[in-house]
């Protein structure tokens, strides 16, 4: 009858629906959940291995044994007892770590002084190079090796200017002249290079672009209180 027809239609619909494929979103959702579970289990396994290999498990075993051996006077507060136990327990490796940390900090602290020392030595090397050049260039000023020359001859040698002065300058004074008055590295280089050419006549001619600067330095040196 009619009831049998309805049951037949319902059965056919259930059969048709049961043969339909599972939606993709449900498939991927289930796959992601399984993958996350596998990853979580793997991480937990690696963590347990880490606890064993780093002797953490052994430390807790010793803690539990110490409680058991304390029977029947078990600690009233196991949490405080745990803190006391591990506060007294110290792996020898920590001593080595502390030593390495201290050594590392000492090395860090020693770097700035060493860098400053290197910088100071580099300046000394540059000063020595300049000193050697000045002593060689002195021969241009003092070809007869008298180790002294008058200020008048000095100015005439460099600029051709004629001044009235009978004071003398030695090689030591000449070193001070270059170091104390030719503080500009570029001007010092021009000065020493010109001296090393050993030209006849004044080293710095009036039409030279550096003549005013050179003459200013020499004039300031001659008239400075140190050399007056």
Descriptors for this entry?
228 residues, 2 strands, 73% helix, 9 helices
Notes on the structure:
The protein is mainly α. The protein has nine helices and two strands; from the N terminus they run H-H-H-H-H-E-H-E-H-H-H. Strands 1-2 form a two-stranded antiparallel sheet. Helix 5 crosses helix 7 (171-181). The longest helix has 50 residues, at 92-141. The model has no long low-confidence stretch (mean pLDDT 76).
Q: Helicity range of the residues?
A: over 70%
Termini gap = 141 Å
Mean pLDDT: 76
The computed structural class is mainly alpha
Overall form = rod-shaped
β-sheet strand percentage? under 5%
Uncertain stretches of 5 or more adjacent residues: none
SSE topology string: HHHHHEHEHHH
Strand order of the largest sheet: 1-2
What is the rounded Rg? Answer: 47 Å
The total of helices stands at 9
Strand count: 2
Largest sheet: 2 strands, antiparallel
Topology:
Layout: H1 2-18, H2 24-53, H3 56-69, H4 78-88, H5 92-141, E1 148-150, H6 151-159, E2 168-170, H7 171-181, H8 185-197, H9 211-222
Antiparallel strand pairs: 1-2
